[in-house]
Structure formats: structure tokens, C-alpha cells
Amino acid sequence: MNRIRIRLANEQGNVALFVLGLISIMIILFLLILNLAGALVVKEQALSTSQQAALAATAALYEELPGFILTYEKDLKEFIEEEEAAKEEADPEEPEEGEEPGEEKKEKTLDELLDEETEKLAGEMAGYTLNEIRNEALDRMLAKELDKGLGNGMLKKKLSEELEFDWIKSMKESARNTIIANGGELDGAVMTVFDDGQVVVESSHEAGAIGYNGFFANVKENLFKSSKGPEVKFVQKIPGWEGRTYSLE
């Protein structure tokens, strides 16, 4: 009788251990599923943050262009006037028939060309905001002007200089601020200008694991994602600006 009781007690103990072990395994599997789901959510957050940062950096570039155009127009006008004065001094020409002395064919300004391009795009880009249409018009207009090579490539030189010494700073700052505002991590974040005319931002969000009894405890990892902004056509015509990478830390 005592042996039967001992055997039953042992069996009950073994069953209890088995059940406890099974429960522990189930909890670990459940936590694993939770952590995988959490990692997917964090990856989506990282993707959204990088997308917004790339858009913000591209928007910062476009914000610099109107002021630049005004300055460039003045510099180009001065350059043309100096060239014409030097040419006139070296080889004076008689005015053509019907043309008064000093009368010249007036070239359209970049602002006028921009307005024309904006008007053309208004029909093509129905449903877009005026700002989006204006940015696209800016891009196309500058791309055409870069092809002309006016002023011995003055536009190309000045755009490259502005990018080098000013605009990149604004673009980096916009990308950084966007990452921070979205709860992302600056550690390891980078901005590439340009990849086929697109700003690329790679950033991360921190994923923390849910732990149990030593499993997954204190496990943290930055999950990285990269995204591209909209294509900027005119930068593809400026040499030396493909694939430059800048830290956002």
C-alpha cells in the first residue's frame, strides 16, 4: 500500500514538473511571437521615419531655390553685360535695320520661365498641391537652364557651391529634426545625396525585447531602414554629386 502511494506521489510530481516545463515553453514561445511582432512594428516605424526624413531633406533643398534664383539672375546679368561691353569695345557693330542703338532682345528671366513651366504643369498635375507643382516646375526649369550652359556654366558652378557650403547643412538639419520628432535614433543615421537624383536617408528605431525568467532580458537593438525622397532632376546635371554620404549623428 505504501509503495502504491509513493509511486502515485512520484507520478504526480513528474506530471507537475512536466506541466510546469510545458507552461514555461509556452510562455517563451508566446514571448518570442510578441517580440517578433514588436520588431515588425519597430521596422515599420523606422521605415516611416526614414521616408519622412528623406522628404524633409528634399523639401529643405527646394526651399533654398527661390532666393538662389534671384541672386543668380543678378550675377548672370552682370556677367552678360560685361561680356557684351568687352565685345563691343573690341569689335563695335552697327545696329541691325529697324533696331535702335542700345536696343536688345530681352531674354526671359528665370522667374518668368518658372511661371510658364508652372502653368504648363498645372494641367498635367491635377490633384497635386500648388507647392508640389511649383517644385516640379523649378526642377524642370533649372534642368533646362543647366543644359544651356549660360555664363560659362555659371549656374552649374553656383548650384554646386551652394550645395557644398550651405544647402547640405539645411538638408541634414531637416532630416535630423524629423528623425528626432518621430522618436528615431540618430546613432548610425546617414543621408546620401544623391542616388539617381534622390535623397536617401537611413535611420533606425530601438527595439527592446520583452523578457521572461532570463530569456530575452535586456535585449535591445536598433533596427535600420532606408528610404528615398522624390527625384530631383536638376542635381543629376551637376557633376560630383552622386553618392555623397553624410552622417546625421
Automatic annotation (TrEMBL):
Residues 13-58 form the Putative Flp pilus-assembly TadG-like N-terminal domain. Pfam families: Tad. Residues 83-109 are annotated as: Disordered. It comes from the Bacteria. It comes from Planococcus koreensis. Residues 83-102 have a biased composition (Acidic residues). The chain crosses the membrane at residues 15-42. This is Putative Flp pilus-assembly TadG-like N-terminal domain-containing protein. Keywords: Membrane, Transmembrane, Transmembrane helix.
